[in-house]
Amino acid sequence: MTVYANIGSRFAVAPMIDWTDRHCRYFHRQLTRRALLYTEMIVADAIIRGDRDKLLGFDAAEHPVALQIGGSDPAKLAEACRIAGAYGYDEINLNVGCPSDRVQSGVFGACLMLQPDLVGECLTAMVEGSPVPVTVKCRIGVDDQDPEEALDRLADVAVAAGISAIWVHARKAWLQGLSPRENRDIPPLDYDRVHRLKRRLPDVFVGLNGGLQTLDAAVTELDHVDGVMLGRAAYQTPDRLLDVDARVFGDEVRPVDYPAIIDAMADYAGRHIAQGGRLGQVTRHMIGLFNGMPGARRWRQILSDGAVKPGAGPALLHEAFAAVRVAPAERDAA
C-alpha cells in the first residue's frame, strides 16, 4: 500500500464549504488526533487578493491539516500554493469535484473533469509551486462521460504531474439538471470504479469518498483503497470520529474523556471571543455531539438558543454538557 507524507492520509474528514472552517477543525481534532482534516475550498483568486490570515490561518493543534484550493489558472494556482506554503499546511489539494453554480460560473471544480489536459497543467504548476504534497479530489466523471475513460484520463494526467494522492468521490457530477445538494445523493455510488482505479495504479495513493455513513463501512473500504473520507456523517454525528485513532491507525483504545473535550472547546471559544468572535461560530459545529445519548436534545437546544444571545460565553458549553447523561466513567474522566 502506497502512503504519502501526511500521517492522517488513511482517514480524512472531507472538505465541505461552510462547514469545515477552522473552528470545526479544532473541534474535530479533540475527537481524533490522527485523521487528516481539510479546509473548505478556497478559490485561488481569494488567496492571492484577499485577507490571507483570515482565509488561511489556523491553530497549530489542527495538524495534520490540508488546504483545498479551487481554480483553473495554472499560474494563479501556483502562486496560491506559494502563499499558502508559508502557513504550514501539510497538503494542498485541487478541487476537481464540486458541482456548485459558483464553480460552474468560474469553470473549475467538477467542470475540470471535462478538461483533463488543463488539470494536468494546473497540477504541474501547483507541484512546482508548493512546498508540501499536492493532491487532487475528483469525481468519477460528469454528465454523459464514460466513467472508465474519464477517471483514467484524469488520473493519468494527475500522476504525470507528480501528485501525491488521488481522492475520488465515487459518483458522477451532473452539471445540468441537479443542484449541488442533489449531486451528493442522486447520482449512484460506484465504489467498484474506484477499486478498479486502485488496481490499475497500485503504486499511487487512491482514496475513496462519497456515501460512507459509518466507521464500519469506511474500514471495510480500506481493504480496497489506501484511504477513506467521511463528510456529512462525520460532521453531523461527530462521535463517529472518537474511534478513528484506534480502529484505523491502531492506537490504544482509550476511554472517551468528554469533560476534557468540553473544557478544551470552552477554552478555545473563550480565546475566539476575546479576539472579537462569537460563541455561535464555534458551537454550531458541536450540535451533533452526543447524538443518541440521553440529554442530547437539551444539549442541542441550549447551544442553539443560547449561543446567539448577546454576551454568550464559554460557560454555556458547561451548562449544556450538564444536561447530557454520559456513562459515569466518561463524566468522571477529568
From TrEMBL:
Domain DUS-like FMN-binding: residue ranges: 13-316
Major enzyme class: oxidoreductase
Keyword Amino-acid biosynthesis set for record: no
Alphabetical list of PROSITE patterns matching this protein: UPF0034
Keywords from the UniProt entry: Flavoprotein, FMN, NADP, Nucleotide-binding, Oxidoreductase, RNA-binding, tRNA processing, tRNA-binding
InterPro entries: Aldolase_TIM, DUS-like_FMN-bd, DUS_fam, DusA, tRNA_hU_synthase_CS
Keyword check for Flavoprotein: yes
Active-site residues from the entry: C98 (proton donor)
Gene3D superfamilies to which the protein is assigned, alphabetical: 1.20.120.1460, Aldolase class I
EC number: 1.3.1.91
Positions bound to FMN: Q68, K137, H169, N209, G210, G211, G231, R232
Named cofactor requirement(s): FMN
GO molecular function: flavin adenine dinucleotide binding; FMN binding; tRNA binding; tRNA-dihydrouridine20 synthase activity
Site feature Interacts with tRNA, where: N95, R184, R297, R300
UniProt xrefs under PANTHER family: FMN-LINKED OXIDOREDUCTASES SUPERFAMILY PROTEIN
Family: Belongs to the Dus family. DusA subfamily. Belongs to the dus family.
Function as written in the Swiss-Prot or TrEMBL entry: Catalyzes the synthesis of 5,6-dihydrouridine (D), a modified base found in the D-loop of most tRNAs, via the reduction of the C5-C6 double bond in target uridines. Specifically modifies U20 and U20a in tRNAs.
Name of this protein: tRNA-dihydrouridine(20/20a) synthase
The encoding gene: dusA
